[in-house]
């Protein structure tokens, strides 16, 4: 059975740990998912399977669509804000969906930032595939150290990000 959860603001995300772990069963959530409040800067970390860790900014507005069992989520719909995803290579793919883009990967570390009609995807390790919702004919491969900017007007633009831009995004996650 598929369940999803809308999460806006840190206080309403208490149940996300159970959703990412794959079920609403409280005993499984305690065993399978560890939610940690982080500071400098404030954010939450969800380590929900050995293969999947997500950090979210307090302002991130998202919906998690789970899979059955102990697999990583099927998808995360990000409406606003940024999340950092760390997926172990070889694990099941999780899509990060924004109004402008879909980022998918089976194993890497990357950040998706959705704001003001634009989505940015920055890859720290590995490679991420970025497409546009409803148009899989344009596929961009984004490698470590590169970012993709996606807007309705310009489509997908991949480039090596300047150090200052990458550092500013990474600082939002204490890196």
Description:
The protein is mainly beta. The chain has one domain (4-171): Jelly Rolls (Sandwich), CATH 2.60.120. The chain contains three helices and 14 strands. The chain is globular. Residues 1-32 have low confidence and may be disordered.
Key terms:
single chain; 52% strand; disordered N terminus; Jelly Rolls; 175 residues; 14-stranded mixed β-sheet; mainly beta; 13% helix
Total strands: the figure is: 14
- The CATH architecture classification is Sandwich
Principal-axes geometry comes out as globular
**Amino-to-carboxy terminus distance:** 37 Å
Low-confidence stretches: 1-32
Secondary-structure element sequence?
A: EHHEEEEEEEEEEEEEH
* CATH class label: Mainly Beta
Which fold name corresponds to the CATH topology?
A: Jelly Rolls
Describe the main β-sheet briefly: 14 strands, mixed
How much of the sequence lies in strands comes to over 45%
Topology overview:
Layout: E1 4-8, H1 16-21, H2 26-32, E2 34-38, E3 43-49, E4 52-56, E5 61-65, E6 75-87, E7 94-97, E8 102-105, E9 108-115, E10 118-125, E11 127-132, E12 135-143, E13 146-151, E14 155-160, H3 163-171
Parallel strand pairs: 6-7
Antiparallel strand pairs: 1-5, 2-3, 3-4, 4-6, 5-6, 6-9, 7-8, 8-11, 9-10, 10-13, 11-12, 13-14
Outline of this structure?
By secondary structure, the chain is mostly beta strands.
